[in-house]
Amino acid sequence: MISKESGLNSFQNLVNHSYLASFISLRIPPNTCQNTSQQSYWKKLKRSTGKKKETIIMGDLNCNYLNDNDHKEIKDIFTTNGFTQLLKTPTCVTATTSTLIDIIITSNPLNISGTSNICAGLSDHNLTACTRKINSVKYQPETIICRNFSNYCVDSINRELLNADWNKLYNQQTADSAYKCLEQILLNALNRHAPLISK
């Protein structure tokens, strides 16, 4: 969705609304008219983010967050609606200026585990990124079956195997039946000394 009204010539919802959050790429061009309608601006933003959904906004806002008075009316739109700007260091550095105009704004900062502000040398703008937690997904408890070796004694199971009736094994007529007989003798001893349990 792209709007060219009120100087907002690149307001777009780049990533569709996922299960976790809405991701918005936002750019406000330089020298945007100071009397841009805040109500109209927020209405467009709210329509893109959806109701009661976590929202992460990234892009070139051209509002210097290192200067509290720069484009204060635009910053107030985010602040009054519960958004937090996460980056703290300059993102656009030239020979004469150092500003924080490339932003990462979120409605739920506790879900962001980290941010990056990288000078890549591709332009005077740094690369910015953030990492979102995904631990909100709760998995159902899983029951597993395993052997309990808490009372396992090697000497005890060895004695039992020495005293087992191995004639049953020797009297088998085929390799398959001999294997099954051997398996049964071993499992019987193992089940007594290391029984199966669920946990």
Topology:
Blueprint: E1 10-15, E2 22-27, H1 38-49, E3 55-60, H2 72-80, E4 84-85, E5 92-93, E6 98-99, E7 102-106, E8 112-118, E9 127-132, E10 145-147, H3 154-162, H4 167-170, H5 175-193, E11 196-198
Parallel strand pairs: 2-3
Antiparallel strand pairs: 1-2, 3-7, 4-7, 5-6, 8-9, 10-11
Helix pairs in contact: 3-5
Q: What is the 3D form? A: rod-shaped
Radius of gyration: 33 Å
Distance between the termini: 51 Å
User: H/E order of the elements?
Assistant: EEHEHEEEEEEEHHHE
Oligomer kind: single chain
Task: Note down, in words, how this protein is organized.
The protein has five helices and eleven strands, in the order ββαβαβββββββαααβ. The chain is an alpha+beta fold and 199 residues long. It folds into two domains: 5-132, Endonuclease/exonuclease/phosphatase (Deoxyribonuclease I, Chain A, 4-Layer Sandwich), CATH 3.60.10.10; 145-198, no CATH class. Strands 1-2-3-7-4 form a five-stranded mixed beta sheet, with helices on one face. Strands 5-6 form a two-stranded antiparallel ribbon. Strands 8-9 form a two-stranded antiparallel ribbon. Mean pLDDT is 80; it is low at 1-17.
Quick structural summary:
The protein is built from 5 helices and 11 strands. It has about 200 residues and is of the alpha+beta class. The protein has 2 domains: about 5-130, Deoxyribonuclease I, Chain A (4-Layer Sandwich); about 145-199, no CATH class.
Descriptive labels:
single chain; alpha+beta; Deoxyribonuclease I, Chain A; 199 residues; disordered N terminus; 5 helices; five-stranded mixed sheet
